[in-house]
Every structure is written in C-alpha cells, then in structure tokens.
Amino acid sequence: MPYPEILVRPMREELTRIGVSELKTTEEVERALAEGGTNLVVVNSVCGCAARNARPAVAMALQHEVRPDRATTVFAGQDVEATAAARSHFHGYPPSSPSIGLFKDGDLVFMLERHQIEGRDADQIADDLVNAFDRFCAPNAEQ
User: Fold this and answer.
1) Domain annotation for the chain: domains and CATH numbers
2) Rounded-to-integer distance, Cα 81 and Cα 135, Å
3) What is the per-residue pLDDT across 49-106, written as a single tens digit (0 to 9) for each?
C-alpha cells in the first residue's frame, strides 16, 4: 500500500524543484523513453539511501555543464505502473530502488543499482553520474 501522498510529496519535490520531470503513468514513461537524445531516469524511493545519497547525488550531477537532454523520475511504491514500465527498460538489471539509469536514443547505456548507491556518499555517486554524462551526453559522446 502506498504511503500517503502528503508524506511522499517532499521526496518528490526534492527532484522536481531541480527540474526533474515526474512520470506517473506507463504512457508518460514510454513517451519519454521513445524520444531521441539522452534521458536520466531516477527510480525514487522513501528509503534512507534515496534521501541521503541518491537524490542529493542527482542534484549535484545535474549542475555539471554536460547533462542529459532530459531528467525524469518515477516513484517506487507510489506510482506502481510507471515504475514497472521504467524498470522494464532496465534490461539485465533486477528491480531495485533507488536506482538510476541513463538512456541514449532509447537504449540503456549506464545504470546505478541500489547496491551501488547504498553505503556510498552523494559525492561519489554524483561523480559516477558526471562521468556517465561526459561519456554519453557530450556532443562527441559515444554512440
């Protein structure tokens, strides 16, 4: 059963106030991932490692000069269908939250799973994201 929205709203807003777009339906997820270019997809969560590590890391990484064309988020345990739709594109990775995937032209090119987020600080995670942005989002990035 989902948490009451009033409790979850600040966790959502931690990402939306920095420009990350929420995807709340399967259709929104599919439309976002069908667009060309790069898209960061954050599977948000109520857990402590999302609050302490993942969301702050995303905020830091999105300040880098090289960024994905879009940054989007689904909320695990809240927007169940949207989360399932996003996870269906994380080929080869079991469901975990939080998690962060980077897509390029609809293909998953970089993934951070929960086990790569837990126990690490936000700076380390942001460094991983920035390296992925430089590798896949820069004008002369890998195809």
Assistant:
1) 5-136 (3.40.30.10)
2) 31
3) 888 999 999 999 999 999 999 999 999 999 999 999 999 999 999 999 999 999 999 9
pTM tops 0.85: yes
CA atoms within 13 A on the CB side of 129: 34
Catalytic residue, candidates 15, 49, 57, 82: 49
Compute the distance between CA of residue 103 and CA of residue 29 in angstroms, rounded to an integer: 12
| HEC letters along 66-112 | CCCCEEEEEECCCCHHHHHHHHCCCCCCCCCCCEEEEEECCEEEEEE
Catalytic one among 47, 54, 85, 129?
A: 47
Half-sphere exposure of 123 (CA within 13 A, CB side): 0
Among this protein's residues, is 137 annotated catalytic?
no
Amino acid identity of residue 19, one-letter, is G
CB 39 within 8 A of CB 102: yes
Per-residue pLDDT tens for 95-138?
999 999 999 999 999 999 999 999 999 999 999 999 999 999 99
Pairing of strands 38-44, 107-112: unpaired
